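INTERNAL AUDIT FORM
Audit reference: QA-55
Scope: verify that the stored structure record matches its stored sequence.
Auditor: D.O.
Record contents follow.
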Amino acid sequence: MEGEKYSSHRLLRSVKNRFGSTDELGVFEMSQSGLQGVSNPSEMFLGELHSDSDYLAGLAVAVIVDGSRAFLIEIQALCVAGSSVGRHINGVQGSRADMIISVIIKQAGLKLQENGIFLNVVSGVSLTETAGDLAIAAAICSSFLEFPIPHGMAFIAEVGLGGELRMVPQLEKRINTVAKLGYKQCIVPKSAEKSFSDLQPQGMEILGCKNLKEMINTVFRRS
């Protein structure tokens, strides 16, 4: 049983299952009557979104897979010019975050060098898979540009050293989860766009981008 000390939610992970897969994850909430199953686990990781609020700048939604479940989680970034704190990272591997920041500077041309950068994964989740790379980059770019990410948009891709967006495992499961939760747009690698063009699940728009520059031009374009 896993979970944050002061959180009411608990994750039950199987180590060995004689008659079934160990690739299963149970999500429960502690109530007055005991543990209750959570039907939509992504709700515990997503805060209340207000599309007309300035605070959305620096917030992006990633899609992770844990066991047989796909979850949406929020990644927050804050860029502060001239801050004495270089980087403060919570919930993301430090080396991975450093790489993504360096790629943004080199390949996307954003001058982050003189900014203190704070990264946080909401609800104490630890992001360990590369599928969250693009959401991390999008959150940092959003805060630096002071441009909120459009409401109802999610990000799924690995970021390479050349700034290119790369495929990740179980992409279809991730996209279907995003669609079921009512999101209208999903940024994926350009190579995956054609694969899902016929699906357009539940009216969701699949936007393919080749690299970080293209993602920035797509997400943060002025109308």
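Auditor finding: record pair retrieved intact. Residues 199 and 206 are 9 Å apart (CA to CA).
Action required: none
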